[in-house]
């Protein structure tokens, strides 16, 4: 089974209080510091969100998902365990629908202990795509 198979599940997309909520599994084989996860974008239907447009629920509350640009220290000690789902939320920019929507998540895993040269960790891009029906 590819590492990305469990990232998006059939019930991963929901609509709650004016927000899309996306439950995401870690597309990696072991726990990582949240700071090692860099989101590029999330697309739900025809709307694309940049990391500054959505938040992740952590033990420290909701954090804007562009932490790799400004909050690395704050998330460095937060672990994302393989069995845990990360809850992301983004404002709904279209009327919520019960129809199936294509969801695409572009995220990079920056390996904290694998380097291709000194001081340069290996970065693994992931493109996760699934057709999901929103759960209400």
Write structural notes for this entry.
With 136 residues, the chain is mainly beta. It is built from two helices and eleven strands. The protein has helices at 67-70, 72-75; strands at residues 13-16, 19-25, 32-33, 37-44, 47-49, 55-58, 61-64, 79-80, 85-91, 101-117, 120-132. A five-stranded antiparallel sheet has the order 1-2-9-6-7, with no helix packed on it. A four-stranded antiparallel sheet has the order 5-4-10-11, with no helix packed on it. The longest helix has 4 residues, at 67-70. The radius of gyration is 15 Å and the shape is globular. The model has no long low-confidence stretch (mean pLDDT 87).
Report, as a whole number of angstroms, the end-to-end distance.
29 Å
* Number of helical elements: 2
SSE string, helices as H and strands as E: EEEEEEEHHEEEE
Mean pLDDT: 87
Radius of gyration: 15 Å
What's the structural domain tally? Answer: 1
Counting helices, strands and paired strands, the structural category is mainly beta
Low-confidence residue ranges: none
Q: How would a textbook summarize the main sheet?
A: 5 strands, antiparallel
Query: In total, how many beta strands?
Result: 11
């Amino acid at each position: 089974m590819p590492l990305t198979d469990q990232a998006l599940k059939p019930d991963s997309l929901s609509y709650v209080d004016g927000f899309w909520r996306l439950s995401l599994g870690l597309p990696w084989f072991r726990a990582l510091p949240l700071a090692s996860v860099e989101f590029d974008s999330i697309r739900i239907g025809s709307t694309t969100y940049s990391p500054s447009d959505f938040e992740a629920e952590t033990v420290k509350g909701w954090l804007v998902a562009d932490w790799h640009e400004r909050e690395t220290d704050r998330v460095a000690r937060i672990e994302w365990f393989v069995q845990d789902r990360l809850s992301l939320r983004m404002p709904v920019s279209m009327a919520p629908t019960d129809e199936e929507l294509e969801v695409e998540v572009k995220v990079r895993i920056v390996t904290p202990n694998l380097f291709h040269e000194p001081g340069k960790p290996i970065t693994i891009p992931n493109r996760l795509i699934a057709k999901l029906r929103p759960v209400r």
